Amino acid sequence: MVxxxxxxxxxxxxxxxxxxSFEVKKGEFLSFVGPSGAGKSTLLKILAQLETPDEGTLExxxxxxxxxxxxxxxxxxxxxxxxxxxDNVAFGLRARRLKGQEIKxxxxxxxxxxxxxxxxxxxxxxxxxxxxxxxALARALVLNPLLLLLDEPFANLDPNxxxxxxxxxxxxxxxxxxxxxxxxHDFDEAFLMSQRIGILLEGSLVQLDTxxxxxTNPSSLEAAEFLGPVNLVQADESIALGGAQQISSSPWVRxxxxxxxxxPKGEAIVRELRFYGTRIILLVEKEHKIWTVSxxxxxxxxxxxxxxxxxxxxxxxx
Length: 318
Fold this sequence. Notes:
- This protein has helices at 40-47, 85-95, 100-113, 129-141, 159-176, 187-193, 211-216, 221-226, 235-240; strands spanning 2-11, 14-24, 29-33, 55-60, 70-73, 147-151, 180-184, 196-201, 204-209, 230-232, 252-254, 258-262, 268-276, 279-286, 289-295, 305-310.
- The protein is an alpha/beta fold.
- The strands form 4 sheets. A 6-stranded mixed β-sheet has the order 5-6-7-3-8-9, with helices on both faces. A 5-stranded antiparallel β-sheet has the order 12-16-13-14-15, with no helix packed on it.
- Helix 5 links the parallel strand 6 (147-151) and strand 7.
- The chain is globular, with a radius of gyration of 24 Å.
């Protein structure tokens, strides 16, 4: 549906994007993650044709028109403060000079689907962050976009709202068949929503794959480290950890790819515990090297002795 080929963008000598190429499939939800300054917002603006590539090409398989536009939803939502929720959502339809009854037929069902039908007469000032986001989505979706672009959709949401909102956006856009490109800092939400994820580092697209592929088979050490702690594994260490069970031939393994088994006579010792809600990170010393291990076992304590093993799969929880 959309194709970027060898796109480069430079601002005052700084390369925001470097030779980026990818395709977006019709009906796909594609997300890009990366640190600040990686080029995510520049990529979104090029897709929206608010910026022009210095090199490379952007091609749409279907021309976008007023009836099927490309719409960018900004992270601050940019609602009109003097308009009600209904009028915010109806704004683009009125610009197309649709009649009142036709506008109601299109706006009201969408407000209902988004769970904000009771807020139709409310003004943005009295809305929560999550409600404002739904209004901004409704304002975009009511125009039947050829491509919907989401700029950091979770930036202004409380942490407890993010997962539920990500699931809602995923289900709604799939139900409507909307093609979406999203840029975000939120890994968990990107994994939950997306069919494919791209990693942008310093303007380069270093990997584009399914969520599982991105996590379990990173294309480089830099890509692996961006998504969480990894351990560098030498050949002799791999054998000592049970090398026949190693996930891949890569010289690194994620914290989730190791397991710690308690044994008072073990050669490894837990030096530090870091709690992350449902899981903990163990910093385990073995032969004067610190290994990072993810565990669901809340019973570990600093000073525990035991053995380190490579999992057959990072999804093995034994």
